[in-house]
Amino acid sequence: GAPRAAAAGAEAAGGVATGEKQERAFYHEQQDFSWEELYAALEAKYTAGGFAANGAARSARAVDAATGAPLGGYDANGAGESESSEEEGAAAIDAVQAAYWEDFYRSHSSARVYKERRYLLEAFPALQTDGQLVVELGCGHGSAALPVLRGPGARGSRVVGVDRSSEAVALAASAMRELGYAPERFEAHVGDVADGEGLAERLGLAGRADCVLYVFTLNSVSPQDAAAALRAAAAMLKPGGRVLFRDYGPGDVRHMRALKGHAPRFEGDALIPTSFVRRDGLYTSVFSAAALAKLGAAAGLVLAESSYGCVHMANRKTG
Fold first, then answer.
1. Does the residue 221 lie in any domain?
2. What family, per the record (predicted)?
3. What is the mean pLDDT of residues 3-16?
4. Domain total for the chain?
């Protein structure tokens, strides 16, 4: 069939950019500084010693990008080194992940955890086309699905949400029913993107989707499962369909926090390491444009567009 395309936007909102106070509301695509400026600032910071030289305590443990196992072993409670194997370490983290997200959505069942992501319609104009099938992988409680259903081009469009958490799926389905969306417009299923192409087959979505959304989802997927996650998306696409991706990029404030206590290095446009296990046991990763292109290519996707959203973030009180 026709080559598939992946449109990607990895956010890099770094605290090492400028010190000016942001005085107006901004749209997510605003560029307060260029990626080249951020890269130069990061390079200067870490060439001078950075976090590793000052003996800062680690806020996150780096993990092997191929296996997902913590470097140097892993204690599932975050209490220090362990003698577990890579397989045991990765399995322990996976169990923590599953339990965490079930508890998270269960405890937030009556609250709007995330704001409706209306900016997605501007970031990805393809979502404004009438009569599409849009699949969101990692749908959570539906904050990305809702603007698609409400969008200016959403007449007749249908959204299928998929999440590993059964609590999230139940919450999303209930919220959409309360808003008056019939099952013909929105449905949600429990599914794990680590199943790759098998997920598309099991849900009856193989070769059917016009767009597949990954919105701040892949960062919490085990690094060794990232390739399978892209294959799952690719398997769902019609010929010419698109994977629309948005996540954290190198130099994002989350990345800067995770790098504390490590000895980072540069590889191309990436600041390594890029994958970590946080103290609460969750994975967190950032994606460079090059890494995203490589993941997509391995899944049979062609990168159509990629950019970094570089936005200065400031405390409203302190500036």
1. yes
2. Belongs to the methyltransferase superfamily. METL family.
3. 34
4. 1
pLDDT for the residue numbered 64: 62
193 to each of 42, 61, 106, 162, 199, how far by Cα in Å? 33, 24, 21, 9, 7
Query: Which residues have CB under 8 Å from 228's CB, separation 6+?
Result: 193, 194, 195, 196
Q: Is 319 within a domain? A: no
Question: CA-to-CA distance for 248 and 215, rounded, in angstroms?
Answer: 10
Q: Is residue 315 domain-resident? A: no
CA distance 104 to 309: 28
- Give the residue numbers spanning the domain of 290: 4-17+27-309
**Residue 314 placed within a domain:** no
pTM of the model: 0.76
pLDDT digits (tens, 9 = 90+) for 230-289: 999 999 999 999 999 999 888 888 888 888 777 777 777 677 888 888 777 778 888 888
Cβ atoms of 282 and 96 within 8 Å: the answer is: yes
Q: Token digits for 264?
A: 């980072």
Q: Domain holding 48: CATH number?
A: 3.40.50.150
